[in-house]
């Protein structure tokens, strides 16, 4: 099988002024496309090595699957966690669970923003299926800092390609503006899937 890049679920300029058309274009068409290509290429290497019975380049290709695959999966979630109609707080079951597991929405948000300020890749809200609770995770690159068994619910990309052109070094302003476009429909659906699967 090979992986494909889905179009953005909105126009490239739909998240302005919080994220510019230029950044979304580069980010989706160049960076995200690169992870899709990298994943496909690594899979081809693995397949060829299995046919040849020569596994010398397989460990590197396996690492490329993890890196590029995680990049593809998280970017898909990131795009689908924003919309021009976004900017609300979570509601319903996910809101209740955030309050239960973090004490309050503000406590969750403060912790998530701190994670986003520190990460070398992503801040994630995940459902941890071992402990059966929501957690914030600090991820470097696309995969370093992952907790096994965690199901991503909300993803915020803080790689420099995500904000530097719009905000320069003021990453905190980008993180604040993410909350002006965050759309909780997809995270809520993913939370409900996780509960169905794991509880
Ligand atoms: Fe990115």
UniProtKB/TrEMBL annotation:
Reaction catalysed by this enzyme: 2 superoxide + 2 H(+) = H2O2 + O2
Annotated ranges, domain Manganese/iron superoxide dismutase C-terminal: 90-188
InterPro entries reported in the protein's UniProt record: Fe/Mn_Superoxide_Dismutase, Mn/Fe_SOD, Mn/Fe_SOD_BS, Mn/Fe_SOD_C, Mn/Fe_SOD_N, Mn/Fe_SOD_N_sf, SOD_C_sf, Superox_dis_Halo
Domain of life assignment: Archaea
Needed co-factor(s): Mn(2+)
EC number, as in UniProt: 1.15.1.1
SUPFAM superfamilies tied to this protein: Fe,Mn superoxide dismutase (SOD), C-terminal domain, Fe,Mn superoxide dismutase (SOD), N-terminal domain
Residues bound to Mn(2+): 27, 75, 157, 161
Recorded family membership: Belongs to the iron/manganese superoxide dismutase family.
Annotated function: Destroys radicals which are normally produced within the cells and which are toxic to biological systems.
Listed name of the protein: Superoxide dismutase
Upper taxonomic lineage: Archaea, Methanobacteriati, Methanobacteriota, Stenosarchaea group, Halobacteria
């Amino acid at each position: 099988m090979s992986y494909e890049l889905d179009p953005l679920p909105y126009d490239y300029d739909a998240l302005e002024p919080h994220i510019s058309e230029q950044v979304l274009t580069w980010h989706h068409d160049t960076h995200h496309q690169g992870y899709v290509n990298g994943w496909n290429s690594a899979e081809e290497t693995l397949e060829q090595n299995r046919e040849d019975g020569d596994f010398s380049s397989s460990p590197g290709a396996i690492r490329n699957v993890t890196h590029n695959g995680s990049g593809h999966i998280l970017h898909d979630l990131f795009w689908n966690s924003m919309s021009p109609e976004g900017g609300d707080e979570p509601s319903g079951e996910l809101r209740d669970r955030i309050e239960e597991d973090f004490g309050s929405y503000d406590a969750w948000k403060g912790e998530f923003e701190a994670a986003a300020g520190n990460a070398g890749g992503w801040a994630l809200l995940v459902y941890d299926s071992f402990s059966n609770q929501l957690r914030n995770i600090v991820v470097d690159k696309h995969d370093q800092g992952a907790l096994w068994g965690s199901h991503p619910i909300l993803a915020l990309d803080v790689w420099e390609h995500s904000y530097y052109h719009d905000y320069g070094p003021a990453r905190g302003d980008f993180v604040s503006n993410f909350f002006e476009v965050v759309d909780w429909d997809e995270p809520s659906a993913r939370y409900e899937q996780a509960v169905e699967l794991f509880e």
